[in-house]
Amino acid sequence: MKKILALGAALALTAGVSAYAANPFSDVSTNDWAYQAVSDLSDQGVVEGYPDGTFKGERNMTRYELAQIIARLMAKEDQLNAEQQATLDKLAGEYADELANLGVRVSNLEKKVGNIYWSGDARMRYQDTAAKGADKYNGRIRLNIKGQVNDSTTVQARLVNNMDFKGDNTSSTTADRIYVTHNLGDSTSVTLGRQPLTIFGGLEYDDQYDGAQVAYKEGKFDAKVAFGQLNASDFAVVTGKAAPADKSKEEVKAHDMFLAQADYDFDFAKLGVAYVGFQGSDAKNAKDVNGDKALGFDNIWGVNLVVPVQDLRVYGEYWKSNADDNNKTWQAGLGYGTLDLKKPGSFTLDVAYNRVGQKAYFGGTTYQVNDFFSKGDKEMKFWNAVAQVALQKNVYLRGEVAFDIDGYTKANESTFDDNAWNVSLNYKF
Length: 429
Hints:
Blueprint: H1 3-13, H2 35-43, H3 63-74, H4 82-94, H5 96-101, E1 111-113, E2 116-128, E3 136-150, E4 153-164, E5 171-184, E6 188-198, E7 206-218, E8 221-230, H6 232-239, H7 245-253, E9 256-265, E10 270-279, E11 299-309, E12 312-321, E13 328-337, E14 347-357, E15 376-392, E16 395-408, E17 419-428
Helix pairs in contact: 1-2, 6-7
């Protein structure tokens, strides 16, 4: 669009904000129809001219130039009425990529109403599990809610609906997260409530927990300490047996968790270290509700290394607990590509070899083919491949397969296969 027309639109967003200003540009006459718009917006710092003192109003404006104007208007959004704010939000969404390049954080996946931000995702998934005859077809939608309390405090929650398309066609909706984050300066934050927790790449844990976290980030270094309780659903994975509903929370409370994690990006490699300790009720020797040893350990430590090589990445993860045996978990993998939901055709491909010790794992893995993790009597050994490709903007296809699965107990050998796979169509909004 012509630069002069864009400025007219910008003036509409700031009507009533500015006062009459002097002519700032040599090529804008007081007789020009857009004189007032240009002078007012220049006075507000919304528009700038060229070094030679001209405005060049008849020149076509680039998206980048218009994004600069939008960014300056966003700094004045507290002066806008509801209608003006709505228009500005639409412009910010349309020019989100350009604004991001300017260092202005605007998510085109977020919709703002006052101080409330909405975003979400949906998934349609088919699962061929390792358990014979137990394939699944299901759907999920998640809604994220973020409330801006003040400049340093936010409240976030997530609503999740899961639907089974094959079994009894049941549907359930829950709130699986609600937490408050206080920013203590630019580097430190404190988070309280039921909040997400992902350790490294998510091999050991990618889920929620109930508790408190202090996080610090400065440059290429970040660290966090957390204390809380694992979710009941995760504890069932740890034990290998589902606890009765009336007892599951008691079991979780018997094993409070302390986490310390630190990561550093060396440019040529990213290194992470973590320690998890389980407190209370003699976690190493405690029995679960079925009378079996529950965790079998009360502390576990891990290290993660990612080495980028152009479009490739080589990564590995290692965990060791203080259990008497079967106490190691490790992974070695190779990845290629980067998934960018703004760029259809972008993709990632990862292949990894895994050995999961049953007494070196505490549930909630990022993998979606994990129904066999707790079915072994030694280590569960398997290969895993994950592929993702962006089909359209904010739409991507994900496939995952585990193969050459080895390590089942004698009781499970006849009921579980040596491979499992799933495919899902995913949407971000």
